[in-house]
UniProtKB/TrEMBL annotation:
<keyword id="KW-0067">ATP-binding</keyword>
<dbReference type="InterPro" id="IPR000719">
    <property type="entry name" value="Prot_kinase_dom"/>
</dbReference>
<comment type="similarity">
    <text>Belongs to the protein kinase superfamily.</text>
</comment>
<feature type="domain" description="Protein kinase">
    <location>
        <begin position="18"/>
        <end position="287"/>
    </location>
</feature>
<keyword id="KW-0732">Signal</keyword>
<keyword id="KW-0723">Serine/threonine-protein kinase</keyword>
<dbReference type="InterPro" id="IPR017441">
    <property type="entry name" value="Protein_kinase_ATP_BS"/>
</dbReference>
<dbReference type="InterPro" id="IPR001245">
    <property type="entry name" value="Ser-Thr/Tyr_kinase_cat_dom"/>
</dbReference>
<dbReference type="InterPro" id="IPR008271">
    <property type="entry name" value="Ser/Thr_kinase_AS"/>
</dbReference>
<dbReference type="Pfam" id="PF07714">
    <property type="entry name" value="PK_Tyr_Ser-Thr"/>
</dbReference>
<protein>
    <recommendedName>
        <fullName>Protein kinase domain-containing protein</fullName>
    </recommendedName>
</protein>
<dbReference type="InterPro" id="IPR051343">
    <property type="entry name" value="G-type_lectin_kinases/EP1-like"/>
</dbReference>
<keyword id="KW-0808">Transferase</keyword>
<keyword id="KW-0418">Kinase</keyword>
<keyword id="KW-0547">Nucleotide-binding</keyword>
<dbReference type="GO" id="GO:0005524">
    <property type="term" value="F:ATP binding"/>
</dbReference>
<dbReference type="GO" id="GO:0004674">
    <property type="term" value="F:protein serine/threonine kinase activity"/>
</dbReference>
Length: 341
């Protein structure tokens, strides 16, 4: 069927990748190799390794990507399924790799791409996520949004990738229940860790974390109070004097406050991704910036090695007098990151 992913044999993909000779990267899931199809199309071939859970993730990713078509989602061109040791996914090749390599020079130093490019990446990522939530027959919850899973084409257009942890949610359902917490520490919403519940607002939380990383060029685990102190005080000093800021400074302030709205403790108070886009673009006014007490989870919880519901329950509802007296919009973000993994 036109537009559907093609099924490759393992032998075909060995030939396409030159026997997997050009490795683009690797991780817990396996490795990604560059390849060239017979028609000259460059591709990225993800070779999965691991447990039966990885097998489930593989077929989930094939099923989800086969039904999505959006400029800001990576395109699945094909796959191979010849037993548990020969599971591969064939994607369009993204020349500029992942967002991570561009917004971070290292853990603490921002990358050198311009603010205009960063802003467009943030907007494009938000549009891709909004499509998953609002425009598919079944709502798709990504559950692992982070810089490594946002790929960039040769024009720096972002494309959300890696749907192995994603879940489909019928539009009649209000939430899903998970038995195992999914996602990457630092980006996972409190309701997912504490109760195992998932909605589209779970992705909104992860987007809020990603957005602040795009703005600052610093990984969320290193966004300490000291790092953000001067940055936050600028907002407090200027108050409503936005007219005196440059266009770039106004955009950064606006996106920073949007990020704060996205990482609220209560998922019902987080904006939808369609609302997020409107606020980022300045089409609609920002919602009221949250209070410190609405960001207790983000303030208090930063897992180092694994996601622990017990630990999260123990720290989430600290009384507000234990919070530092800082910017209402970002005290939670800056201080919680001191305990980053």
């Amino acid at each position: 069927m036109a537009g559907m992913p093609r099924r490759f044999s393992f032998q075909e993909l060995e030939e396409v990748t030159g026997k997997f000779s050009n490795c683009l990267g690797n991780g817990g899931f396996g490795s990604v190799f560059k390849g060239l199809l017979a028609d000259g199309t460059e591709v990225a071939v993800k070779k999965l390794e691991g447990s039966n859970q990885r097998s489930k993730d593989f077929f989930a990713e094939v099923g989800i990507l086969a039904r999505t078509h959006h400029w800001n989602l990576v395109k699945l061109l094909g796959f191979c399924a010849q037993g548990p040791r020969k599971r591969l996914l064939v994607y369009e090749y993204m020349k500029n790799g992942s967002l991570e390599r561009w917004i971070f020079e290292d853990d603490r130093i921002p990358g050198n791409i311009s603010w205009k490019v960063r802003f467009n990446i943030a907007i494009g990522t938000a549009r891709g996520l909004s499509y998953l939530h609002d425009d598919c027959v079944e709502r798709i919850i990504h559950l692992d949004l982070k810089p490594e899973n946002v790929l960039l084409d040769d024009g720096f257009q972002p494309k959300i990738a890696d749907f192995g942890l994603s879940k489909l949610m019928n539009r009649k359902e209000s939430q899903l229940q998970l038995t195992i917490t999914r996602g990457t520490p630092g980006y996972v919403a409190p309701e997912c860790i504490q109760e195992g519940t998932v909605t589209e607002k779970t992705d909104v939380f992860g987007f809020g974390v990603l957005l602040l990383e795009i703005i600052t060029g610093c990984k969320n685990r290193n966004l300490s109070g000291d790092y953000l102190k001067d940055y936050l005080l600028v907002s407090n000093r200027n108050g409503s004097a936005g007219a005196h800021l440059s266009e770039e400074e106004n955009e950064k302030e606006r996106l920073k406050n949007v990020a704060a709205l996205c990482v609220r403790d209560d998922p019902n108070l987080r904006p939808s991704m369609s609302k997020v886009i409107q606020m980022m673009e300045g089409v609609t006014e920002l919602l009221q910036v949250p209070l410190e007490s609405e960001l207790n989870f983000f303030f208090a919880y930063r897992p180092k090695d694994q996601l622990s519901r017990t630990a999260a329950l123990n720290v989430t509802y600290r009384s507000s007098d234990k919070l530092l007296n800082s910017s209402p919009s970002f005290a939670a973000f800056s201080q919680s990151s001191l305990n980053a993994r």
